[in-house]
Amino acid sequence: MYEYMNPGFIFLTGLLLFLLLMTILVMKGKSLEKGVAFKHPYIIYFFALVSVVIVYWDGVSTKEKVLSNISIFNGDSELRCSTIGKSYLVSKPKGWYLLDKRSLTDGNLILSIEMCKEEK
Questions:
Q1: How many CA atoms lie within 13 A of 38 on its CB side?
Q2: CA distance between the termini of the chain
Q3: Which entry of 1, 28, 60, 107 is 20 to 30 Å from 53 by CA?
Q4: Could you tell me the strand order of the sheet in which 79-82 lies?
Q5: What residues contact residue 110 under an 8 Å CB cut-off, 6+ apart?
Q6: Distance CA 44, CA 42 (A)
Q7: For residue 86, what are the contacts with CB-CB under 8 A and spacing of at least 6?
Q8: Beta bridge partners of 98
Q9: Residue 13: helix, strand or coil by DSSP?
Q10: What is the torsional sign of CA 64, 66, 67, 68?
């Protein structure tokens, strides 16, 4: 499941969690300086939880999309795979095959199956 998680999302979530932790530590330090009891910032905990849930949700939805596209491809239907500026019609009868869990190839070109949609 973790192989389908977006590395960019994971990095940004880690960065956000780090910044939230630093904010909590600074707030706790300031309250200790003043001699006031530290009040836990529950809104910050909420944002941390939401960011982790978003990363997990994105991984689950990407996995479902990839598995759906693989089943469409194996059913001899066509997929339209897009790259920057180009679009390719991909199917088994045209000589395409699965390279691994996430890629399609015809021998010359490798396309991510995440970027494909069913051609109707």
A1: 14
A2: 29
A3: 28
A4: 87-90, 79-82, 116-118
A5: 99, 103, 104
A6: 5
A7: none
A8: 104
A9: helix
A10: positive
Give the pLDDT of the chain (120 residues) as one tens digit per residue: 566 777 888 888 889 889 888 888 888 888 878 888 777 788 878 888 888 888 888 888 888 999 999 999 998 889 999 988 899 999 998 999 999 888 999 988 999 998 899 987
Q: Please state, in angstroms and rounded to a whole number, the distance separating the CA atoms of residues 59 and 113.
A: 14
d(CA 103, CA 112): 5
* pTM for the whole structure: 0.71
Residue ranges with strand state E in the chain: 79-82, 87-90, 97-98, 103-105, 110-112, 116-118
Residues 8, 10, 15, CA angle at the centre, nearest 5°? Answer: 95
- Alpha-carbon distance of 73 to 69, in angstroms, equals 6
CB 12 within 8 A of CB 18: no
- What token pair was written down for 101? 């869990």
Question: In terms of residues, how long is the chain?
Answer: 120
